[in-house]
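quick one
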Amino acid sequence: LEFTHVAHPSPVSADERARVLANPGFGKYFTDHMVTIDYTEGLGWHDATVQPYAPMQIDPAAMVLHYGQAIFEGLKAYRQQDDTVASFRVAANAERLRASAQRIAMPELPDDLFLNSITELLAVDKDWVPVAGGEASLYLRPFMIATEVGLGVRPANRYRYLLIASPAGAYFPQGVKPVSVWLSTEYVRAAPGGTGAAKFAGNYAASLVAQAQAADEGCDQVVWLDATERRYVEEMGGMNLFFVFGSGPDARLVTPELSGSLLPGITRNSLLTLAADAGFAVEERRISTDEWREKAASGEITEVFACGTAAVITPVGRVKSAAGEFTIGGGEPGAVTMALRDTLTGIQRGTFADIHGWMSTL
Ligand code: PLP
Ligand code: COI
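structure w/ 2-OXO-4-methylpentanoic acid:
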């Protein structure tokens, strides 16, 4: 598929862009262009376009507005030391978008179109990628919605895939500080057989009331438990969790196994590899809130951290639930957490060897 290019008639000035890049925050500013690719049943994917970022018209009866067929991805592009721009594990995001599409009965976007949409957008908007060396990056947000007009409840026969991009600053301008979490036993995020393993918009809508409850409890984030027994840890807000047992070279890492109702994070998957590279034993298994509390108290669990594209790695310092609260690691980020964080961010910024071939130049 050839991309049609419509250049922006009045892109943001270099001065204005520099002002935005000096303090981008997260998801507040968008680059000059966006990509759209349409899908029509029978025709397949068509009309791939790079065009000015702008509001779009949507029919009030477009199916996404009623029955919620909407999925997305999130990945980052990083400026490298030699001024090229590279992204992290794009092929994994392409594959996960296809998996999400399958679950929500949407058409799969072929991986080459996913990759090309990113290359095409970066070709026109690469000046929006923050400077090399720091923690800032360009966050890429691919997504897909059902555009067919009609109120019948069934999979739509028309869709639009879009790619937008937003400069993202250091997630922790004040340095990496442990967060506090609320264990949610009243609300669940996803149930067996449900949509939890898909990056499906509705999962995020369903999470908001529990995140608000966590805030009311004085916590930064919500931690989701399994829907059936409300005993096993699933994930934290929009991030996966890791538990560090022991310390030094004998440290072991445990992360909740992919239960079918938690999101298979690409950062999670990468850290399983990097931790094994570093000589740590790694285990994917169920871990209960009782085990967490007891082994944090006995000192066997020494560090806990969450991981995801947006915030990379965030230590968890305090855990609260209806049953009480406890702390982990004395409120400071742990050594294993910070070592893994340095390795991962080093690969992404091009200062550490990319031995797994995870970076691709755009
Ligand atoms: N869990 C949820 C619910 C998420 O939304 C995300 C973010 O994408 C993650 C985990 C982490 O996934 P990744 O590492 O691929 O960003
Ligand atoms: C993540 O990257 O970890 C996220 O959860 C992204 C979020 C903005 C949906």
